[in-house]
Amino acid sequence: xxxxxxxxxxxxxxVTSAALGLIRALDYNGIKAGFMKPFLQDDTLxxxxxxxxxxxxxxxAFGLTPPKSISRQRVERMIGDGNLDDLxxxxxxxxxxxxxxxxxxxxxxxxxxxxxxxxxxxxxxxLMR
Length: 129
Hints:
Blueprint: E1 2-6, H1 15-28, E2 33-36, H2 53-62, H3 72-80, H4 84-96, E3 104-108, H5 119-128
Parallel strand pairs: 1-3, 2-3
């Protein structure tokens, strides 16, 4: 299974639209694509299901079942405690819940903001995996 990591550089640039368009284009070409967003951008979105709007759109538009995103509170706590390796292992475990159902997984990174200053660090760690 291949992974494509989409890394947003700022809010409003359309990374979710790009991800969904890529899933559609791959599907059109007979390539089965899955989706995941490892970290919640904003914990206020959907605490019950841990789905961000990108995952919810992928689920509703394509019938995909993205793995749960890790809450911002958990990400910040683990980074603050120096547990970045454990955090990345959790991402890998979530990734593997997709199983072997897909040829490609589209992974959407966090938008770097003043509230998520760790977004770049987390993305770099994902790239190194």
